[in-house]
Amino acid sequence: MFEKIPVEVGLTHEGERVRKNDMQVELGGPNEKEKFEIVRVSPADQIEDGRISIIGPDLGEMGEGKHYPVAIIVEVSGAKVEPDLEGVLERRIHEYSNYIEGFMHLNQRYDIWIRLSKKSYKKGFTSLRFAGEVMLELYKSELPIIEKIQITFITDPETISPLYAKALTTYEARDARARGLSDDDVDSFYGCALCQSFAPTHVCVITPQRYANCGAISWFDGRAAAGIDPKGPIYAIDKGTCIDKVKGEYTGVNESAKQRSMGEVNRVYLYSAFEYPHTSCGCFEGIAFYIPEVDGFGIVLRGFRDVTVNGLPFSTMADSTAGGRQVDGFHGISIEYMRSMKFLGADGGYNRVVWMPHETRERLKQFIPESVFGAIATEQDVRTIPELKTFLESHNHPVTSRWDAEEETGRAEDGSPRIPVFSGGDIPFTSGGFRIILKNARITADKVIIQPIKPGSPGGEHHGAKKP
């Protein structure tokens, strides 16, 4: 099928990482503000079937080790292809791209991050046309409802800029469709296994009020995907019986998680970041992270380049959050989930959120209760935990009412026990010549102190997280 492609193409290459030292070129990613991918359903007479266009410098014209903006526009048509399928088809770009040897595709929508390895480049993968040919072939063979398809790659920043703004408007319109629907209104949820190549035990549960972590698949998208490809990576989940409405635990979700994670995940709380939180892949748009010193949550999105109030950048916390694990207090989330009435519903919702970047707070202004909006600190207000505590007290943040209750009783105001500050599915260490793994370990502490380690200092070689 792919005889003309100079590298291997197949499932075996899913989940491959291209590290910085092995990278020929990078498209999108954290160094580029404007990048996106989008699928559009267009009239058949406006599509030249099989056409691949490249606007801007191609891979062979890019400098080694450099980064460039990128846009991928896929236009499709067919008698059975509806606009409701755009988001579903769009997520397949991630899947199909990762079949290509040495071609790493991460994230989605306006967060895409692509790297080409030096090895694949030397084999002759010197044009984005090869990636387009792979996607054309896989779209047509796996989704026969597509009758015509054309693909455009753009690396010219001046061309991308106006199209980027239009893409954001399209994403917002899609997301808004599901906001009037509640989880109680439907009998089925949907699951997505597209990220299991990178996080084998991750099971994404998509409900009307809990978007996929990547922010790209809504409940309507899940329904459409399962309808056109019932055996595909997006599938229906029978809700079953509701065990806990506040935490969002359902028998059907638990059973599905157990099967899809090969027994590693047995219980899931859809609306809580503690005990049995929803697993996190690596394509999440943001992280809700617990700050034990103030018993509240911070929020950080992928694009935030500074360190957060706990002294850690997004990249470091992402390593603690991703991988398909259930980690108390580190919770991968999407922006649309942050707009939901169920957002961290079991943990106090926005009354428990104490810090987020200023840009994020403004973006979510209409969804954050007015009573707490001004009491949520940003990087413009505080830089350290002591400063955060003072800010919360001076602004009468609702979370401060929990502090006295915890000091007096050792329990939260609602009677719940103090929260573990760290947990992990597997915590390995070596002792006496044996490798010991603690399964489902939870570690608690009376106080947590986070100190930055400078390169060259004791332990400095382990500080931070390596970027892929």
Describe this structure in words.
Helices cover 24% and strands 21% of the residues. With 468 residues, it is of the alpha+beta class. The protein folds into 2 domains: 11-178, Bifunctional carbon monoxide dehydrogenase/acetyl-coa synthase(codh/acs), Chain M, domain 3; 181-409, Ribonuclease HI, Chain A (3-Layer(aba) Sandwich). The strands form 6 sheets. The protein has a 4-stranded mixed sheet with strand order 4-1-7-6. A hairpin with a 6-residue loop joins strand 6 (103-106) and strand 7. Mean pLDDT is 88; it is low at 415-435 and 457-468.
**Largest sheet: number of strands, sense, barrel closure:** 4 strands, mixed
Helix content: 10-25%
Q: What is the SS-derived class? A: alpha+beta
Q: What is the third-level CATH name, the topology of the largest domain?
A: Ribonuclease HI, Chain A
Distance between the termini: 30 Å
Oligomeric state:
single chain
Low-confidence stretches: 415-435, 457-468
* Strand-residue proportion: 15-25%
Write the CATH homologous superfamily of the largest domain: Carbon monoxide dehydrogenase alpha subunit. Chain D, domain 4
Shape: globular
